[in-house]
Amino acid sequence: MFRQLSYRFNWRNLLYAVIGLLVLAASVLLMSFIGTKSSEQGCAGVRVIVLGNESFIEQKDITSLLVEKYGQLEGRTLESIPIHEMESDLRQIPFVFSAIVTIDMDGLLTVRVKQREAVVRVINEKGVDFYIDMQGHKMPVSLKYVPHVPVVNGHINEPYNGSLDSIESQLVKDIFKTAQFISDDSVWNSQVVQLYVNKEQDIELVPRVGNQQIILGNADSLNRKFEKLKMFYTKIVPKTGIGAYKSVNLKFAGQIVCERSEKFKPGDFIIQDSIQQNRSNNTQ
Fold first, then answer.
1. Which candidate in 12, 45, 88, 124 could, as Cys together with 156 as Cys, close a disulfide (CB 3.0–4.6 Å)?
2. Cα torsion angle, 135, 139, 143, 149, sign
């Protein structure tokens, strides 16, 4: 009986070993076949997909760039197409945020490019203009596409060399932060049409309605400052009219400083914001 069990057991192990060898041999043959097919297979076509809300670059721009450097891709063997080098070249375009090149089993080469998104257009004091993208990088303007973003000019001493670059000055960092805040709020995005930097390096808001000089200062406490601006429009303007004040200063903590226009008297008018008012009431 012992000999019979041992005999059966040995045959079973042998059967498993044979099956394993057959599977391994089949896998090697299959991989060899796939490798041979891939090395000999030609590119069946090129598909370019441009992602993003902007139109700085188009499909034809990407196709022209690839053909100019790598020649005609369709018909070439897949192994001769340097997809990683292509990705690196596409990322060098200042309007491109990311680039991925893939080839499927049918030989179709797909290029996916995601564009950078502009937040604000800056014109420095020398007249050189550039955009700042969502990641806070300076990028060039385009001759064929103008995104709908705020423009800021004035006393801005930020250099730009025409390529993708990082922000140097705190002022432009504050401009970027302010522009982001405005673009994220539908009301302020509609009301604020432009930014300006005065001689004191204060950021000013240019409103769509009214001609007041709205002095924001820097980008600190933006929520508080825009709450005070909202108070100006909802509590002061209904009582005095939109043209009663020539300037609204939001720089100072706890108050709005409104300077009346020469057509109105008396002179300066100061109102505490709601937060400061509540604190005063609680201490009484």
1. 124
2. positive
Query: Is the preceding peptide bond at 238 cis, omega within 30 degrees of 0?
Result: no
Q: What is the pLDDT of residues 127-182, one digit of tens each?
A: 999 999 999 999 999 988 999 999 999 999 999 999 999 999 999 999 999 999 99
- How many CA atoms within 13 Å lie on the side-chain side of 52? 22
CA distance 260 to 212: 10
Residue range 215-262, pLDDT digits in tens: 999 999 999 999 999 999 999 888 888 888 899 999 988 888 988 887
Tell me the residue ranges of DSSP E strands in 125-272. 129-133, 137-139, 151-154, 165-166, 192-197, 203-207, 213-217, 245-249, 255-260, 268-272
Give yes or no for a contact between 52 and 97, defined as CB atoms under 8 angstroms apart. yes
Q: Report the SS3 class of residue 6.
A: helix
Domains of the chain in sequence order? 45-115 (3.10.20.310)
Rounded to whole angstroms, the Cα distance separating 43 from 9 reads 53
pLDDT at 22: 74
- Give the pTM: 0.77
User: Would you state the structure tokens that stand for residue 264, as one six-digit string?
Assistant: 């109105």
Beta pairing, strands 118-123 & 151-154: parallel
Other beta carbons less than 10 A from residue 5's beta carbon: 9
Q: Is 131 helix (H, G, I), strand (E, B) or coil?
A: strand
With a CB cutoff of 8 Å and minimum separation 6, the contacts of 45 are 74, 107, 108, 109
